[in-house]
């Protein structure tokens, strides 16, 4: 299944796509990923980062949705974008318009060229900036259960600064330092789970802790759930396989 096939599938199922993306933030993230993909195609850059973002955004769809089933297949997950047919900018714009038209009051996507500011009094509201979407995603990850400051200090004393653990910089008002998500440890202890350390290594959590945290704490159509919630429920090999397929696709 090529990226072009994926865009065709989105067009085919556009009615259920927006309907099943219940959360407005999820719909906006899919639209933002499509815009990033269109920019890459138009500029002749590698589309792999945009396709990865799009696939992650689409993981919010229910497991039974046709797009989820296609993304969860090994045939698609094992392939990247290099050497594959890429969708045209016009095709991506079509999917954007179909998706955004489902939102009440949405304005169809204008295309890759910038649109002049309509000025005050028109009722047109600008979409969220990429920085706003990123900030919202990070805020969601920072709300996940994490070690307390005392526990984090104890962890550093007993286990040292383990590079395999995810630590998220938290500089919100009244906080300063790093948040260490609690799912990484055996319940009731400060003992890191070996499978978490292995998967964090695959996801390069040392270089991209936010991306690794998003994989663990976001919905995953391949696993039909949130990976962090499936620890101890699914075999470790299934969790590692899902992470490996994502990595091999890029």
Keywords:
250 residues; 2% strand; two-stranded antiparallel ribbon; mainly alpha
Quick take:
The protein folds into 2 domains: 3-114, no CATH class; 136-248, no CATH class.
Task: Find the structural class using helix and strand composition.
Answer: mainly alpha
Give the low-pLDDT segments: 74-84, 104-110
Q: Report the end-to-end length measured between terminal Cα atoms.
A: 15 Å
Radius of gyration: 20 Å
Write the layout of secondary structure elements.
Layout lengths: L2 H10 L1 H7 L3 H20 L4 H11 L7 H6 L2 H4 L11 H12 L29 H13 L6 H11 L8 E3 L6 E3 L14 H9 L6 H9 L9 H4 L5 H13 L2
Antiparallel strand pairs: 1-2
Overview of the molecule:
With 250 residues, the chain is mainly alpha-helical. It folds into 2 domains: 3-114, no CATH class; 136-248, no CATH class. Helices cover 52% and strands 2% of the residues. It contains 13 helices and 2 strands, in the order αααααααααββαααα. It has a two-stranded antiparallel sheet with strand order 1-2. Strand 1 and strand 2 form a beta hairpin. Helix 1 (3-12) packs parallel to helix 7 (89-100) and helix 3 (24-43) runs antiparallel to helix 7 (89-100). The protein is globular and about 55 Å long. Mean pLDDT is 76; it is low at 74-84 and 104-110.
């Amino acid at each position: 299944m090529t990226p072009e096939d994926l865009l065709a599938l989105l067009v085919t199922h556009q009615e259920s796509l927006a309907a099943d993306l219940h959360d407005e933030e999820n719909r906006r993230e899919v639209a933002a990923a499509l815009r990033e993909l269109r920019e890459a195609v138009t500029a002749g850059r590698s589309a792999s980062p945009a396709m990865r973002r799009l696939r992650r955004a689409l993981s919010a769809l229910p497991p039974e949705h046709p797009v989820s089933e296609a993304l969860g297949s090994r045939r698609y997950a094992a392939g990247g974008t290099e050497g594959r047919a890429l969708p045209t900018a016009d095709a991506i714009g079509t999917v954007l318009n179909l998706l955004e038209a489902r939102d009440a009051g949405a304005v169809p996507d204008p295309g890759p060229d910038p649109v002049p500011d309509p000025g005050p009094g028109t009722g047109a509201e600008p979409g969220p900036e990429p920085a706003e979407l990123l900030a919202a995603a990070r805020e969601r990850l920072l709300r996940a259960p994490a070690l307390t400051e005392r526990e984090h200090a104890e962890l550093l004393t007993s286990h040292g600064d383990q590079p395999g653990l995810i630590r998220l910089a938290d500089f919100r008002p009244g906080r300063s330092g790093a948040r260490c998500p609690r799912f990484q440890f055996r319940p009731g202890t400060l003992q890191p789970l070996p499978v978490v350390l292995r998967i964090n290594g695959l996801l390069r959590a040392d270089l991209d802790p936010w991306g690794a945290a998003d994989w663990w704490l976001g919905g995953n159509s391949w696993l039909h759930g949130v990976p962090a919630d499936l620890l101890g429920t699914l075999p470790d090999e299934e969790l590692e396989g899902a992470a490996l397929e994502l990595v091999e696709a890029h």
